[in-house]
PqqA peptide cyclase (Aquabacter spiritensis), 358 residues
Amino acid sequence: MTPAPVGLLAELTHRCPLACPYCSNPLDLDPKRNELDTAAWQRVFAEAAGLGVLHVHLSGGEPAARPDLEALVATCAANTLYSNLITSGIGLSPARITALAAAGLDHVQLSIQHADAAPADRIAGYRGAAARKAEVARAVVAAGLPLTVNVVLHRANLEAVAEIAALAERMGARRLELAHAQYYGWGLANRAALQGPRAKVLAAVREVEGLKARYAGRLVIDHVLPDYFARHPKACMGGWGRRSLNVTPSGKVLPCHGAERIPGLDVWSVADHALGDIWTSSPAFNAFRGTSWMQEPCASCPRREVDFGGCRCQALALAGDARATDPVCVYSPKRAEIDRLLSQEAQAPPPYRYRARV
Ligand code: SF4
Ligand code: FES
């Protein structure tokens, strides 16, 4: 029996006013004409609730680009799904935030890029973004919605984590997620520009751990560690096909945001199948479930049900084989190559390749 998924990431659109170089969306973005319509998303949410999903993350791109966002939030509420809006804030007026709260929105996760406006706008590729985000944070708090501030950490903001935590507290956030960059989609294309030197990355890790203690009781700080520097990989998605599913703007259902790039993976769409059938029977979800697909050294490793061999998309990107041990693992034969690559890339970062707009 496959246990029920807990969460669903609904990528409502790939459209976004920002162009962040660490974006995990694919290089081939879904155009607007391919997006699921309102009724299709509403069916997906009803099926998700029936399947046992508890949380829906309304994401993108920028979900506020969808004029039906309020209707989609209301559908989540009607199905007793906890709704989390993952937003850049651009496109959210105070009136719209009030309407979303009235529709039943449960939580807002607002991204910021830096504590200072000039580097924040440069990273986002959008002049005035930082000021707009500050207004959105005020409106979210005024509407009584719980606010999480999310920041992707990389070379350009590693040394600003203390200022970022202070800003998140001033914004009225209850939670701050400091997530070291992970390299998928546009982020992978920009890895050499984003990756900080080892000493700075590790100094930021220590500083964030200190901030967690300093802000205890005022601001919860979640720290997503830089797994390229870890001994063992992350259990990506909590294990393939174990906890959650991603639905792309055009309705493909993926075990993770990078899975579309894995060659030969047979991905099913909500246009052709019920969500429950996809979860239990889609070849893509069954490709890396459990441990039977593993090669050595994972196949006989005592951690195989702790990290599930790491991330399949990272194995593809770094080792050229989605079935390989995640190369960031200390037991991977490719680990020394990763260390070489990191020290080379840290020398001379290229300019950002900004995410395309669709
Ligand atoms: Fe995880 Fe595989 Fe490394 Fe073991 S060998 S720690 S299962 S990635
Ligand atoms: Fe695809 Fe990690 S992002 S398995």
